[in-house]
Design a protein that fits this description.
Layout: H1 2-37, H2 44-61, H3 69-89, H4 97-119, E1 135-138, E2 141-144, H5 145-168, H6 170-180, H7 182-187, H8 192-214, H9 224-239, H10 244-264, H11 271-283
Antiparallel strand pairs: 1-2
Helix pairs in contact: 1-5, 1-8, 1-9, 1-10, 2-3, 2-4, 2-8, 2-9, 3-8, 5-6, 9-10
């Protein structure tokens, strides 16, 4: 009996890590953009959706060649994101945040209708790549091999890559400085417009990468951007808006609560994370690892 419960606990723990890795791929881009640009991009979920649909398109045209799509699809999303930033967001950086949120929400509606026009309203799917259709055994328990890919190469390398970029490169240090004082970096001669566009492009890439990586794990449908953006907001608010470490912690908490919630109380599994977020926001409004800001952003 003890071995049974130990095995069940281990399986749910690992499944929680799978969920955390997937949501972090998407949430990290939103958190990075907010930290530097101060814009809560509601259309970030659309980047996720387009990454998934672009993978579907590429795989369909190449008769199943999945792996190149993991790079190509996010790069196409980057082009979409850069156009959005330059044409629509750049003129309203100094506007009230409510206008920014309304604009990005309008972009969600536009992107969603374009998906319906191009792909229809039916659910679509992407087959798991060759060699990742089966399962692997870990500590005596079976797990889908593609989920291992999501957790280790995709999730872990994204966390490591972002850390090295932000902490070990000159560009990354400039980005980190921008999260602390955007006016200062402009005074130091940094091209703020170019920096903003570059950061937004990275955020779009991460959103598209999340959609591309997770495409084989579920149905593709118009409206999937709404579903994921709610989860992403939960993660970044819980961890602390603009904090990359907070986003990773928020994703981990979200993944484990969702995994064990499904096991304990399936009909209420989504309630746990909302209750926790409410408690955290009451006790610590800036999030678990967010920095307290005096007088506004």
């Amino acid at each position: 009996m003890v071995d049974f419960f130990t095995n069940v606990f281990f399986v749910q723990l690992v499944n929680g890590l799978f969920i955390a890795a997937g949501i972090y791929l998407v949430a990290s881009g939103l958190s990075l953009v907010f930290g530097v640009l101060g814009i809560l991009n509601f259309a970030h979920g659309s980047f996720y959706m387009y990454g998934a649909f672009f993978v579907f398109t590429y795989v369909g045209f190449t008769a199943g060649d999945f792996w190149p799509a993991l790079f190509i699809a996010p790069m196409v999303v980057v082009i979409l994101g850069v156009v959005m930033e330059v044409v629509f967001l750049r003129p309203i950086y100094k506007a009230d945040p409510l206008y920014q949120l309304l604009l990005t929400y309008a972009m969600v509606l536009i992107f969603g209708d374009l998906v319906k026009i191009l792909y229809g309203a039916e659910n679509l799917s992407v087959a798991r790549p060759e060699g990742f259709e089966g399962t692997v055994t870990i500590a005596g328990s079976l797990f889908p091999s593609y989920q291992i890919f999501v957790l280790l190469p995709a999730g872990f390398l994204t966390v490591l890559g972002l850390y090295l970029f932000l902490n070990r490169t000159n560009v990354g240090r400039t980005v980190r400085a921008a999260t602390q004082d955007r006016e200062m970096i402009g005074a130091l001669g940094v091209n703020v417009r170019l920096l903003y566009t570059g950061v937004f492009a990275i955020g779009a890439f991460l959103g598209g990468l999340g959609g591309a990586v997770l495409a084989p794990m579920g149905a593709l449908y118009p409206g999937m951007d709404f579903d994921v953006i709610i989860e992403v907001f939960l993660v970044v608010v819980l961890g602390g808006l603009g904090s990359m470490a907070g986003t990773a912690l928020g994703a981990l908490i979200y993944g484990e609560l969702k995994s064990f919630g499904i096991l304990w109380v399936p009909e209420l599994e989504s309630v746990f994370i909302y209750v926790l977020m409410a408690v955290v926001l009451v006790a610590r409004p800036q999030g678990l690892l967010g920095k307290k800001v005096e007088g506004g952003h």
